[in-house]
Amino acid sequence: MKMKDAAEADNQSLKENVRTARDKLHRIIDSDSFDEIDQNLSSVNILKFPGYDEKLKRAKTASSENEAVICGYATINKKQCVMVIFEPLFMMGSMGSVAGEKITRAFELATKKNLPIITITASGGARMQEGVYSLMQMSKTASAVYKHSRKRLLYISVMSNPTLGGVTASFASLGDIIIAEENAQIGFTGKRIIEETIRAKLSDDFQTAKYIKDHGFADIVAGEDELRPILAKLLQLHT
User: Fold this and answer.
1) Has residue 7 been placed in a domain?
2) Sequence-distant (≥ 6) Cβ neighbours of residue 21 within 8 angstroms
3) For labelling, which of 90, 109, 177, 201 has a CA lying 20 to 30 Å from the CA of 38?
4) Collapsing DSSP states into helix, strand and coil, what is residue 158?
């Protein structure tokens, strides 16, 4: 089998065995309540990074999405909110310029409409193929969170597996309430790289959801099946 064919087979296998972001989203929100925004925005290879165009094509095929982030209006137990969810099948949910733009627009929409916003992250971090354009999304999204917060609106951040790199170091850690999903790896740099850098063994529970909560970086640890009732209760208390 040719390398390209093998890669396509791997992508198809991954798609069949991994639950998609839309599957997860529709188990959390009310039935038929999702009104997607900015669905047609997609990344371009602005830096002419070698191989990036092909990676984008494969990512679109593997995920059936145009980008790593899905945004829109939704209701949870009839409480309206703006939802942002990452699709890890699209280049490991990496945040490039278009993903950052979609997240920023979602926060701006929530701010304009005086709505709470919920983000559900599953990302390896910034998208290296876009260089500084990717890195600047950290400050851009954080600024949008700040403007939303200035209006005293609710932001709930749900950190799924994995939430790493520039996503952790920007908007995902700025929620009024942070929920860490069970079995999620949450941090900035991966555990193995840290161990190699400091030449020391880290604890087995390092970067786990419980570890993150015990050290003050999350408020709640919850299983995926618990997300809907928890989010519904938080939205109810907010209103």
Assistant:
1) no
2) 65, 70, 85, 86, 87, 88, 89, 120, 122
3) 177
4) strand
Measured distance CA(111)–CA(130) in Å, rounded:
28
pLDDT at 170 over 60: yes
Cα 145 to Cα 108: distance, rounded to the nearest angstrom:
8
Distant-in-sequence contacts of 229-233, Cβ < 8 A, 24+ apart: 230/179, 231/28, 231/76, 231/118, 231/156, 231/158, 232/76, 232/77, 232/79
**5: pLDDT strictly greater than 90:** no
- Determine, yes or no, domain membership for 4: no
CB 31 within 8 A of CB 77: no
Angle between helices 227-238 and 21-28 (to 10 degrees): 50
How far from 182 is each of 24, 93, 144, 173, CA to CA, in Å? 15, 19, 28, 17
Instruction: Residue 176: give its domain's CATH number.
Output: 3.90.226.10
Which residues, in sequence order, are CB contacts of 53 under 8 Å at separation 6+? 45
Q: How many domains does the chain have?
A: 1
**Model pTM score:** 0.90
Give the range of the structural domain holding residue 30, as residue numbers without chain letter: 20-238
